[in-house]
Amino acid sequence: QVQLVESGGGLVQAGGSLRLSCAASGRTFSSGAMGWFRQAPGKEREFVAVIISWRGGITYYADSVKGRFTISRDNAKNTVYLQMNRLKPEDTAVYYCAADPTRGTGYYTPRPYDYWGQGTQVTVSS
Q1: At 42, phi and psi to the nearest 5?
Q2: Sign of torsion, CA 54 58 62 68?
Q3: Strand partners of residue 123
Q4: Could you tell me which of 76, 78, 85, 104 has the fewest CB atoms within 10 Å of its CB?
């Protein structure tokens, strides 16, 4: 059974930092891609970042987080991370980890991801 388990969320003041982790079990995603999405109350789930292993570990970010967030992965641990710096109140959301074990496309949308975590709450106070 494949599981993605996020951790690291919490409450932080604006300007602070958090690091989210997503540990995968049940299969490896070293040949696919892993990403982060977020969903704020009353809003649709939106893309945050992705790391595409089968394309040499290339990373892409939403414009709203570019320069502040960094996605990385540890293939040995089958874990992906999201380092979030200079957090803003508008970053408040439930953050979800997602994984695609194959060579997919369209990683800015939820469509290619086969597996999702349960989400972790990030709250940034002003």
Answers
A1: 75, 5
A2: positive
A3: 11
A4: 76
C-beta contacts of 56-60 below 8 A and 24+ residues apart: 60/107, 60/108
- Of 109, 52, 47, 105, nearest to 75 by C-alpha is 52
Q: Give kind and range of the element (H or E) at residue 33.
A: strand 33-39
- Tracing tokens 């990030």 back to the chain, one arrives at 122
Please tell me whether residue 53 adopts helix, strand or coil conformation: helix
Angle at 62 between CA 58 and CA 68, to 5 degrees: 85
At 91-113, the pLDDT tens digits run 999 999 999 988 888 999 999 99
